[in-house]
Amino acid sequence: MAKPTLHLEKFLPYRLSVITNRISGALSRHYADRFGIGIPEWRVIANLGRTPGLTANEVVERSAMDKVTVSRAVAALEQKGLLEREKDSDDKRKSRLTLSAKGQEVYVEIAPLALGFERDLLTVLSPDEAALLDRVIDKLNGKMDSL
């Protein structure tokens, strides 16, 4: 019986990981030097910029980052004065996270950079291809929910 061969360059999970890492790395170069934050910190800022008051666990769920990465990012952002914690009124074991005024300023500056980067990246696709990509990503995410 022949041993199956895994060709990483054709293996979908690997290809998606590579392109995601390349895109995130390129985007992070736009904000790392200017704001002193990395990819995990930006993802926390982006989540809290859109939905203030999340817990760290909610950020984990929304971002698909692991708990340790989120915890370190939250601690780094708090140390830089970009994030504030407040005890949850219903469950004192939880903290609600919000961007500080300084964190809001960072979000307001980076969000347009990120959106511009996305627009530029998608210029290689026709509008129909971009819409198809969006649908395919949604389908794959839906399938992952059942696996």
Indicate the low-confidence ranges by residue numbers: none
- SSE topology string: HHHHEEHH
CATH class descriptor name: Mainly Alpha
Query: Which strand order spans the largest sheet, edge to edge or round the barrel?
Result: 1-2
Tell me, what's the shape? globular
CATH H level, superfamily name: Winged helix-like DNA-binding domain superfamily/Winged helix DNA-binding domain
Helix content: 55-70%
CATH-derived topology: Arc Repressor Mutant, subunit A
Mean pLDDT: 93
Q: Let me know the largest β-sheet.
A: 2 strands, antiparallel
Distance between the termini: 28 Å
Structural domains: how many: 1
With helices defined by DSSP (H or I, 4 residues minimum), what is the helix count? 6
Gyration radius, rounded: 18 Å
- Class based on secondary structure composition and strand pairing: mainly alpha
CATH-scheme architecture: Orthogonal Bundle
Q: Give me the count of strands.
A: 2
Strand content: 5-15%
